[in-house]
Write a structure and sequence with these properties.
Blueprint: H1 2-17, H2 19-41, H3 47-72
Helix pairs in contact: 1-2, 2-3
Length: 73
């Protein structure tokens, strides 16, 4: 039942925000999960994981900036 509610809310969110925004948020999920694990249970991150989190975060920031610039024009 919980899974059904989650999927239903996700689909409603895609309709409201658009596919591009939903994919940006979806791609940030693994990076955010790793950061929460590091902060809450002191999970260790190796260099490759840290670089991966940085790349994902940078990509999200660039995509968000691009969307903001297109809205201003």
């Amino acid at each position: 039942m919980t899974s059904f509610i989650g999927h239903s809310l996700y689909n409603l969110g895609i309709r409201k925000s658009g596919a591009n925004t939903a994919s940006i948020i979806g791609s940030s999920s693994p990076a955010l999960t790793a950061l929460v694990a590091w902060a809450t249970i002191s999970e260790t991150l190796n260099v490759i994981q840290s670089v991966g989190i940085g790349i994902v975060t940078l990509g999200i920031a660039l995509l968000s900036r691009e969307k903001f610039i297109h809205k201003r024009k």
